[in-house]
Amino acid sequence: MRYFFDEFVFDAERRELRRGADMVAVPPRVFDLLGYLIRNRERVLSKEEIIKAVWSGRVVSDAALTTRLNAARNAIGDSGEEQRFIKTLPRKGYRFVGRVRGDADPIIVGRRIEPPQPALWLPDKPSIAVLPFVNMSPDPEQEYLADGMVDDIITALSRFKALVVIARNSSFTFGGRAVDVKQVGHDLGVRYVLEGSVRRAADRIRITAQLLDSATRAHLWADRFDGTLDDIFDLQDRVTESVVAAIAPAVEKAEIEYARRRPTERLDAYTAYLRGTAKLYQFASLPANEEALGLFYRAIELDPEFACAYGRAASCFARLKADGRIAVTPSERAEVVRLARRAIELGRDDAVALAASGWALAFVVHDLDTAADLTERALTLNSNLAEAWRFGGWVKCWLGEPEAAIERFVRAMRLDPLDPRIGGMRSAIAHANFFAGRYEEAAGWAAMALQDNPDFRPALRIAIASNAMAGHMDQARHLLARVRELDPALVLSNLKDTLGPYRKAVNVSRYEDGLRRAGLPE
């Protein structure tokens, strides 16, 4: 039986959820929950009734049920605030309230039925995506300047709590091609889209920008800004302030002043930092990461008080360790501590510097308490910073707080839905579910992560452990064979070298137990 609602098709027999032509990945238990709600949409379902049907009467906490409901809502573009499809009735239960048509329902013949418009997954406050600005200069090397300008505009806009701002990784997937702003709004769940261009001739800079309504494609505002390279910070301020004035006139003047803060007054240091950031976004490239580290050091040399450069440099060491490129030496650990402390000292109110430093201190130095404080501080300063939610999620996972970790990972994916590292986010949610004892859900999330990258080792390892603990031994052994091909030296005795800094020994023991059941040697 298939059920049709909004833009979605729920196929119970094939166990598929589709949004238009696209498949939506849903963990098994979340799929069962969504199906039960849809099939029984004519009435309110109590918590006990849902648990009996979906979990076969097994004891399930309220937090576990809430987590699955949130995941089901997220899969269909709903939220606990909007409740367009899944409605919570306090002290009574839950009901699917979306309009549903099944295969057996009558269909109007002779004309096409259009889906409701607009079909946007919009938050309850203004939302915006800033697309990559086109480099109009003849020199392709100037691309970094255009990208860096967009980075800074995104950072400045994201400080406004009146806005939801999509992260750079997702908005930059639309670079280098003609796009329909309506499609951008549809894919990213935003009302507004900012696009523009940068032209450099000698020391002169011209920025053009236009703001569009993604639902109607209407032009809301457009302007041109001219200046010199020495004026680049002022130009960025003018663009940012104009955009905010166009879409959020109620933003307080004090916040506009706060958005003007510059990471550095040194243009040469800023240029090195922009080049380093561009290299850092080449996620899978070891040479690019090493080049990024060198450029951040160069920025620090040119401006010894450049907080973000210290934080980004520290995060380069964490990236190398996370990718298995280095086994951190005592001298490298000491260098991470030095860089992070300097970033924190100089950037007490800089969310990027604090979040990057927190991640490095957690993963490389294993200082989880300081990392937790730093990521929370970063989120207080900038609640739209996707990487702070992502780093904070890992810190919570390592501290043994899986529910809080999942909340942060889900928020990171909402702010950066097209992040090239989305497989890493799914793997992260698999880890959190595994340590919460939800092995079926963990296996489902790991499977989705492996769809993005079949050889992603953290996802493979958690998939093995999850399937083994869930009793799916054939699948666990099949995945283990692949891991042994990729990493023949991996055994239980050296597993800890590949894992994060888990505070609770029981979590590491559970991980080891799952891999042991699958057949990983001691």
What does it look like?
With about 525 residues, the protein is of the alpha+beta class. A hairpin with a 4-residue loop joins strand 2 and strand 3.
Task: Name the descriptors.
Rossmann fold, alpha+beta, 522 residues, Arc Repressor Mutant, subunit A, 6-stranded mixed sheet, Serine Threonine Protein Phosphatase 5, Tetratricopeptide repeat, 21 helices, 5-stranded antiparallel sheet
Count helical runs.
21
Count of discrete domains:
4
Work out the helicity level. Answer: 40-55%
What would you say the CATH architecture of the largest domain is?
Answer: 3-Layer(aba) Sandwich
- Any idea what the CATH superfamily of the largest domain is called? ABC-type transport auxiliary lipoprotein component
**Mind describing the biggest β-sheet?**
6 strands, mixed
Question: What structural class should be given to the helix and strand makeup?
Answer: alpha+beta
CA-based gyration radius? 24 Å
Q: Report the strand count.
A: 13
Oligomeric state of the chains in view: single chain
The CATH class assignment of the largest domain is Alpha Beta
Strand content: 5-15%
- What low-confidence regions span 5 or more consecutive residues with pLDDT below 50? 103-121, 249-261
Summarize it:
The chain is α+β, with helices and mostly antiparallel strands and 522 residues long.
